[in-house]
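To start, an entry.
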Amino acid sequence: MSAPPSPQLPPFDPADPLGIDDLLSDEDRAVRTTVRRWAGDRVLPHIAEWYERGELPGIRDLARELGSLGALGMALTGYGCAGASHVQYGLACLELEAADSGIRSLVSVQGSLAMYAIWRFGSEEQKQRWLPDMASGEIIGCFGLTEPDHGSDPGNMRTHAKRDGTDWVLTGRKMWITNGSVAGAAVVWAQTDDGIRGFLVPAGTPGFSAPEITHKWSLRASVTSELVLDEVRLPADAVLPGAKGLGGPLRCLGHARYGIVWGSMGAARASFEAALDYSRTREQFGRPIGGFQLTQAKLADMAVELHKGLLLAHHLGRRFDAGRLRPEQISFGKLNNVREAIEICRTARTILGANGISLEYPVMRHATNLESVLTYEGTVEMHQLVLGKALTGLDAFR
């Protein structure tokens, strides 16, 4: 009896060595293609110049364009939001950060922090007032949690809100706030007699200002600001009624961290692709450097970590869409993927040699951006302790 014919295997794809695309639907691929094309047309031709100048010109136009793509508040439903799956939102973050972390940060802060806070914890009146214009990009939002002296320990924030009749009066400072100086509305978290509460602070409110932070060597193509609240008086309906305690802002951070799990792999992919292309064309000792064993070992290790990270992102996305994603699992993804993305960028830089530090290539820009991504939305140490507590049942935070 003759053996059955062997199945015809698909060819090996260096861009997708594990066949991860098989996990995607046609709609998923369409979302990815749309965002990749937009980033290629609107960001990549200019990003090196923006980064070198330390600015993000035309941010309001970019926000409106991202709104027209449905990328703002992408996984939220109603109020003009796209209602996309969390996997599709992750794919969008991947493509945006493959262009630049600053662009993905703009989208993450808008949708996963500011809009999500209103969508999840706001009143119906607040949702109707703010979310449609934020989904379209007409209004940019920011999220004020981190303070100059309290980053990883937001429970001890000093910003406070006091009752004065039916009004609230807010005083304090927030630091490292993406979108702050261009935001039409800030979601600000403050201590009250009833615990930590969230407040909607419209731009232009007396006592509220958002000076821009300069002299950054990371996330240079991103608007980063301080928020100053000097006895800012707000009406009673400025408070987010559904959030009491630290659980409110932490839940928002979980959504933002999820986007980082995907986005960091976009920065890693762009750096890996730059190194792979360079290795095929750069010649030393009479042949392309990609033909040397040490270079191939680096490329193989980079590819393994990149596509392991993508598999992890897909797995977490499917769990998110099934309503089964735990905060500890988001910490797992954020810790692994950002840490590995930085290592991929650093290894890619060694393959490019001295050219690796030039803005003619994306590698050093991504590497420096990822140093910020490693810190914000929870440092390496914080996510290690989250997982440590989950694994042992013992709290080592204090």
Remarks:
- DSSP finds eleven helices and nine strands in the chain.
